[in-house]
Amino acid sequence: MSSAESARGVAPVPVPRSNRRVGFLLVVSGPSGVGKGTLVERLLAARPECILSISNTTRARRPHETDSVQYHFVAKEEFERRRAANQFLEWAEVHGHLYGTPRAFVEEHLRQGRVVVLEVDVQGGASVRRAQAGAVSVFIWPPSIDTLRERLDLRGTDSAEVIERRLANAGTELAQWKEYDYLVWNDDLDTAVAGLVAIVDAERSRVGRLTQPE
Ligand code: 5GP
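^ thats the input. predicted complex w/ guanosine-5'-monophosphate below
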């Protein structure tokens, strides 16, 4: 508000600043093969205020993976040391391996007003929601169980046994959609990306996230 306006008798109001916001955690979750990775990649490209949290894991690196890109690959002893030092916001054992979300990285970027994106399975989604009450959670829904199988087969990273185990889990995981804040159908990629971007935009516009000027 200009001083001219206040001179005309309009009471000065605190003006929100669009560049000073409180960040939040965005949990993108759903069963294996639902397409979380592609959706998140597109969201990050569309909204530079979003930043991906890279988890620690004790699982072996797959040939196409690079350390500190998909995960920080660590030995079990190191993971346990970090866990004991409270360095994880949440952690879980998934399919026999340990995974953890690095607390310092998340907290630092939230302080900077960023949207920190966690791409985790349904069990991970539940553990993050417990650890971070203010997290915004999105459940990604697959077109069908057959599509999940096709995507896991196409990915070519898992054995037939692992794929069957993941599909067996899918039913239990799908039943948890009601625990989330939002649901996005991943039938059509562009529509699903638009849905996810709209959620981020709406959440960023919440009055409660606009910091008051000093
Ligand atoms: P993958 O080994 O196939 O990359 O991941 C196995 C599962 O672990 C995935 O469903 C993935 O979402 C989940 N996961 C990855 N990082 C984390 C994490 O930091 N915390 C939890 N709870 N789960 C994770």
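The beta strands are 24-29, 50-52, 56-57, 72-73, 88-94, 97-102, 115-120, 136-141, 182-185.
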